Each structure stands twice: as C-alpha cells, then as structure tokens.
Amino acid sequence: MSKRKRRSAQFKFEVALEAAKGTKTLNQLAGEYELHPSQISEWKHRLLDEGTIVFSTTTARQQREQEARQAELYEQIGRLKMDLEWLKKKSPNDIPTKRAMIELDHPQLSIRRQCKLIGLSRATFYYTPAQESELNLLLMRSIDKQYTKTPFYGWPRMTAFLHRQGYAINHKRVQRLMGKMGLQAIYPKRRTSVAAAGHKIYPYLLRNLAITRPNQVWSTDITYIPMLHGFMYLAAIIDWYSRYVIAWQLSNTLDGRFCLESLERALAQGQPDIFNTDQGTQFTALAFTSRLEGAGIRVSMDGRGRALDNIFVERLWRSVKYEDIYLHEYATVHELEKGLERYFEFYNDERLHQSLSYQVPAEVHFAGLTAGV
Q: Fewer Cβ in 10 A, N or C end of the chain?
C-alpha cells in the first residue's frame, strides 16, 4: 500500500496562489504540480477565504523572525548571483521546454535548485503529469459544440450523439462531464436550476415587463470555454435593452468569486433597476445578492420551468463560441483573454444585430443613456 504524499504549507500556498492568479487552467496546473484539479481548487478556495488572517496583527515574535530572515538574505547574495547568471541563459516557456532546461550534471546547482529557479515542480520533471485525459478534453469540446447547436440535449441525447460520432462511452461519463461543464438541457421542466442550500428565494420580476431603456435590466450567466490544453469558465453581464456586454471575467474554477468580480466591474460603469440571474449557487451566494441589495438593485431570479428566462445571455454564448472560440482554439489563458478582449470590443462596437435594426449594441446603449430613455 503506497503512502499518501504530504505536502508542505509552502507548497500548498504556491499552488493556490498560481490558481488564484487565473493565468493557467486547472488542467495545466494539475500537470505541472502532479495534483488532482479538485485538490488545487480546494486550496485556492482556502487561500481566498482565509487570506485575510495573514494581515491581522504582527506579534513581537514575528518581528524577530523577520529580522533574522533579513540577516539571512545577506548571506544568500553570493549564491543568488550564481543562480541568476545561470537563469539568464534560460528562457522558460511550457513544461516540456522547462524539463529540457534541467542540467543533470551541473557542477553547482542541484536538480532541486534548478527546478525551483525555473518554477518547475521536481515531481513534474521526473514523472508523467497526471491530468484530465485527452479523450475527456476531446469529449468536452464535442459536447460543448453540440450543446451550443442543440441546448435542449440532455445527457441521454448527448450520449447517443457521441455514440454516432464513434465514441464508445457510457452515459455516466457524459453526465459527469456535462456536470463539470455546468451544462444541462434547456427546456421547460421541474427544477431547472440547482439552488444553493437555504438561499433566499427571490421572485421573477420580468414577467410581462416591457424593456424600454438601457440599465433597466441586466442579466448574467456562466459558460464553459474549451481550450487546446484544458478549459476555463467565462461569466458575463449583459444589458437586456441594448445587448451591450457591460463586463466579463474568466476563471479556472467554477466558484462565485469571479462572478462577484465581474459584478464589481459592471457596477463601476452604472447600475440597473433589476438584476436577473438563474438560481445557481454562484448567484444565490450571500456575497453576490447582498452586493446587489446594498446598491439598491432589485434581484430577480429565473423560476422553475422557465427555460428561456436568460435567453439573451444564451444567445451571447452562441455568438462568442461560433465567432471566436471555435475559430481560434486558444492554447493559453493569456491568448484566450486577449482574444476575448478583441471579440467583446467587436461585439459591442462593430457587430450589427438584427434585433437592434442592424445597429451595434454600443450605439443603442449610449444613445439611450444620453437621451434619457
């Protein structure tokens, strides 16, 4: 029976910090650090939840430790000079490149030290990375493309579709992958959203409501974004009247923090009378709803059996994926972020919308604000 590996607090902190930066997918981090993605997600949550403790109070013992560590720094200067001279000759990029940089017979730098200098886990250097299988990533991309075409497909139809594509898989795998992607069939049915346990129930305020001006109603949602090496999640906030994308945010984990970040970005530009969401846990969290109520915004939530309450955001996801994501197949988070910046600028400022009489969202949005519509 193999022993379970014990990870140091420093190691957990470094991994959680990398995940919190959001510059890599969980799949990439799992391969780099030889961990399961769910473990990295848990450490990230703990870091963000408990990070404020670090800045509480500074004790006398901490002060003495800080002075002792400062003295040690002077002793390390000579060694760091040598380290830096070696590092300057190197140019870290992806994991295979970093592996190739390690010099097994370096006379002064150990393999452990070289790995630390270039930011490579020593376990990653020695062993094959453990991560989501290539088959699962391929299946998730296929599911996402088909779901974008046919959002009324649940796991039974999606399983049948994948069988017709030649994939010999069972329905349990399809169920798991669709759950990981946050996908469920869109059609009137019972309990269309899984709400956070014990969350406050908000009424649906948009029934028979005429949308006549910008900032009358905003809406938000989350979607899965496939990449060449893993995946990310994207949240966006859209104005119902103009279809203008107010704000958006990427995350490598499906939690509520990046949704709250996108909300803060949006509120920095204005605020709606009504904010509509589904009953997912990210939007029913107290931090999210209390931020809206604190700003005097009325909260509306999709009701049971109302499949098309968030139709404008669903249409946005279709446009984003067919007009950008599927065409470019981004390899890194940085490339994805830059690509989405370009696309949302195009979407807001240049893309003609038939429903807007072939105007662009920015024209309709800001013209309405200026005219006081």
A: N
